[in-house]
Amino acid sequence: MMKVDRRAFLGTLGSATAIGAMSHEALADAAEHYMIEQLDADGADDREKMGAQLEFYDPERKVRRGVGRIFADNKNLAPMPAKPTLVDFYELRFAPARHVLQSAKRALTTGQPERTVLACLLHDVVLNLVKPDHGWWGAQLMEPYVDERVSWGLRYHQALRFFPDPEVGYEYPDFYNRIFGEDYEPDAHVQRAYKQARDHKWYMEARLITMNDEYSFDREAKVSVEPFIDIIGRNFKQPAEGLGNDDSPSSHMWRTIANPNRPL
Questions:
Q1: Angle at which helices 148-160 and 203-211 cross, to 10°
Q2: Residue 255 burial by CB count (10 A; 0-12/13-18/19+): exposed, middle or buried?
Q3: Half-sphere exposure of 250 toward its Cβ, with a 13 Å CA cutoff?
Q4: CA 93 to chain CA mean position, Å
Q5: What angle do CA 171, 208, 31 make, to 5 degrees?
Q6: What pLDDT is stored for residue 47 in this prediction?
Q7: What are the residue ranges spanned by the domains of the chain?
Q8: What is the pLDDT of residues 197-230, one digit of tens each?
Q9: Distance CA 209, CA 119 (A)
């Protein structure tokens, strides 16, 4: 697990008054997003090789908290192909995506089913579009193109990460206690989602994402989308027209990620 400097992290959130006004859920999301940004900032050279021409992590950028990364870091975006594939989005919009690539690699090396590997690969990429409730947004983005167990797992992994399950080897992340204290309590809708998921037949679809999520912040790891291209080919329903051009229920979301500077 990446070491988080508590003072540096809290300094990104604004004044003590602003921090005090944030819910525990918002604070926990901010911590995970902070680690993802730190991880991807470390991989700037890898990201450039993958073709995403972005000016990354400008501390002076003025954007509303919760806005997806693609809107904050959208200068000099490389053009998308006419019929973009999921791999194109990884290379040109999600890159360097080190956290999700590490998560998928961990699932692959521990022998998880291909749908779990794919779910780990997909679980946080929607943060490029929007940050609040990313589990629900991520499920909506991917639902037309994946096995329904994958989108179900994406939806509920956001809630399950706050609830330990020692029987399957998932412990409550220690850094939550270190950052927020031991009185942390998830928002009511997250608690409801956890209860719904815990009693569902697909519970492990979401739990396996969390088990390959919180432990995938290795600043030294070398990762690439290449090992997952065949898995994507077998498990992601790539539209012939290209993502964003196929009129699925989430096509507009793909078009927005592809062209975040479009004014209307």
A1: 60
A2: middle
A3: 18
A4: 13
A5: 55
A6: 43
A7: 6-258
A8: 999 999 999 999 999 987 655 566 788 999 999 9
A9: 7
Asked whether residue 54 carries a pLDDT value surpassing 50, the answer given is no
Q: Which of 41-45, 109-113, 154-158 has the lowest mean pLDDT?
A: 41-45
Task: Tell me what percent of the residues of the chain surpass a pLDDT of 70.
Answer: 72
144 burial via Cβ count (<10 Å: 0-12, 13-18, 19+): middle
For 42-50, the CB contacts below 8 A with 24+ separation are 42/98, 42/219, 43/96, 43/98, 44/96, 46/95, 46/96, 46/98, 46/222, 46/224, 47/95, 47/96, 50/90, 50/91, 50/92, 50/95, 50/96, 50/225
Alpha helices, DSSP H, located in the chain: 6-11, 16-21, 24-42, 44-49, 69-72, 86-89, 98-109, 114-122, 134-142, 148-160, 174-180, 188-198, 203-211, 229-235, 251-258
**Residue 67 phi/psi, 5° resolution?**
-65, 140
pTM summary value: 0.76
Spatial CA neighbour of 116 closest among 41, 207, 198, 184:
207
Q: Nearest to residue 114, comparing CAs of 210, 204, 231?
A: 231
pLDDT one-digit tens code per residue, 124-176? 999 999 999 999 999 999 999 999 999 999 999 999 988 999 999 998 877 77
Instruction: Tally the residues of the chain.
Output: 264
Mean pLDDT along residues 92-118: 93
Residue showing tokens 């809107």: 71
The residue behind tokens 């989108």 is 151
